[in-house]
Description:
Layout: H1 5-13, E1 32-33, H2 44-61, H3 73-84, E2 92-94, H4 98-112, E3 118-122, H5 127-140, E4 145-149, H6 159-165, E5 170-176, H7 188-197, E6 201-205, H8 217-220, E7 224-227, E8 242-245, H9 289-293, H10 296-305, H11 307-329, E9 335-336, E10 348-352, H12 356-366, E11 369-370, E12 372-374, E13 378-382, H13 390-405
Parallel strand pairs: 1-11, 3-4, 3-5, 5-6, 6-7
Antiparallel strand pairs: 2-8, 7-8, 9-10, 10-13, 12-13
Bound molecules: pyridoxal-5'-phosphate.
Amino acid sequence: MRTDRDHALSLDAADPLARFREAFVVADPGLVYLDGNSLGRLPAATERRLAAAVREEWGARLVRGWGEGWYEAPRRIGAKIARLVGASPDEVIVSDSTSVNLWKLLVAALLDRPDRRVVVTDDLNFPSDLYLIDGAVRLLGGGRSVRLVRSRDGIGIDAGDLAAAVDGDVAVVALTQTAFRSGFLHDLAAVTALAHEAGALVLWDLSHSAGAVPIDLDGAGADLAVGCTYKYLNGGPGSPAFLFVRRGLQERLGNPLTGWFGHDRPFDFDLAYAPAPGLRRFLAGTPPVLSLLGVEGGVDLLLEAGIEAVREKSVRQTEYLVALWEERLAPLGVSLKSPRDPARRGSHVSLGHPDGLRVDRALIEEMGVIPDFRAPDNIRFGIAPLYNSFVDVWEAVDRLRRVLAERRHEKYSAAPPAVT
Length: 420
Ligand SMILES: *Cc1c(COP(=O)(O)O)cnc(C)c1O
């Protein structure tokens, strides 16, 4: 393995996706931004789209905007995201946050399986998901409980351990496909098949997968899914999330948040609730239109690049990072906290160091690198192949090496900030 910077430059020169970086706003070309798994960069088309939406749609068209595209936008943009996750256009809709969407689909699934009492999840799941699963089980009561599959190494979930947890008592298997801390990637098709063999529904959180790994929800026969749009889809801070309900389940499940946007005829203003046919019933209230319109630009770029090409580059880049880690950082006491096998890894790599938080601070404050930190000791490097170069990866490793070699991190406080 060549560890020199020229090699990274030659990899970039041969990269068929390199031109996509120009489609993003890069305010500081020297900044190595490796946090696209937390907040993706701003697509230039989105900057223009939002300016026009404010000025021409809200400003000039006012309430007429609802009849000129806003009302349809959750379905229209959902249909585009559907192409990234292997779903039909009428199986994905954009609305609310990931947390709220997870709640809606989880409660809908539990109420659909009243004879089964168990929700299976794992301890690598995102805490918000675990809190919501816990809250739904407590709210619905009736002897329901959570069965938490524990990771043996803090990095991945053993397929046998998961299989052993899924039996005839299970109503829903609710998992995040790509683990937020380690990047461990569940085998979506295999776990879906496992859940179905036991007669359970499966609910996937695709937040760290959408826009990073190819997903085939329909091919796998998956039932339900949610996912974030402000990570690899580059939708902007707090942009609304998507939800997926398999076509065959849409008429059977009910949305527990029975708001007027999910009503069959919201503008009849009937006193009684009647669910819309199809996926629209999973809307609740008025969507955040400006944020929603901001989702489209990033999705268009991913569709143009092709998710297979994005994944291929992502694997080459995470492999490159792992190889550089082994040569240059492992000797300095940095560990690999992500799966070694790229087939079991999403698009971020976690490196461990006992002083991880202070190292992260030093990278951000004085080295021009933005990763992020997840307790207890993980420094996460998120790679977004549409705008991250091989030189970005090389620079991140080199600057991390310098922080440690020059002990630059030691002047920072080890007290955690409010937001990481
Ligand atoms: C980012 C993320 C979320 C975020 O949920 P919000 O409702 O947008 O705050 C939820 N689940 C997972 C797995 C995530 O990675």
